[in-house]
């Protein structure tokens, strides 16, 4: 039943023109813009590629929450309550949906890096960057789901945009963390987006991600997962 639910949600999302334009096209456009304004540094083009692929995955993952909020507003949540699926299964189904729809964003930016900007890595590195970013996007999917079940459709859109921009900037997805003041650099190290990008950067540099990055992301995944389940249960009692 969960698989059928995931297939339904993935088809709905990928048919959304707004998702295709802003979730996939925008990160590619920003990447090409940021890396072709007066610089030809190959290392910057590689690092920015990873950062923008992470940014695309972040936005796509959070967008799952927009669909959740819309479904709640039209009564779909009430229909799910009469199915055999438990709250954890419903949240898990949405999380799996997010895990699928982040892939086009990641693939599009990586393709732009290789085909347009001439980024060169070993074949295993391309695959490893894609896989690490795909797996690392889970906490943001759970955050978007939690927002969707907790808030109204309009509020979810606003909050998810704020989370998207705030986490992207503070996490260093747009600009190198080395340019940050010391206090902001210290804060950035504990954000999920900073450690998320670190996974891909480490692999693109030819070595395994640090254990601290994995731990920080795992902690955020647990926190956001608990938030998503609690939000679903709350919505189930009020909708």
Mean pLDDT: 87
Q: Structural class given helices, strands, pairing? A: mainly alpha
Separation of the first and last Cα atoms: 23 Å
How many structural domains does the protein architecture include? Answer: 1
Report what the structure shows.
This protein has 239 residues and is an all-alpha fold. Helix content is 80%, strand content 0%. It contains 11 helices and no strands. α7 packs antiparallel against α8. The longest helix is centred in the N-terminal third of the chain and has 32 residues, at 42-73. The mean pLDDT is 87.
Sum this structure up briefly.
The protein is mainly alpha-helical and 239 residues long. The protein has helices spanning 2-14, 17-34, 42-73, 76-81, 87-115, 123-136, 138-150, 153-170, 182-188, 192-204, 211-238. Helix content is 80%, strand content 0%.
List keywords for this structure.
single chain, 239 residues, mainly alpha, 11 helices
Topology, please?
Elements: H1 2-14, H2 17-34, H3 42-73, H4 76-81, H5 87-115, H6 123-136, H7 138-150, H8 153-170, H9 182-188, H10 192-204, H11 211-238
Helix pairs in contact: 1-5, 2-3, 2-5, 3-5, 3-7, 3-8, 3-10, 5-6, 5-7, 6-10, 7-8, 7-11, 10-11
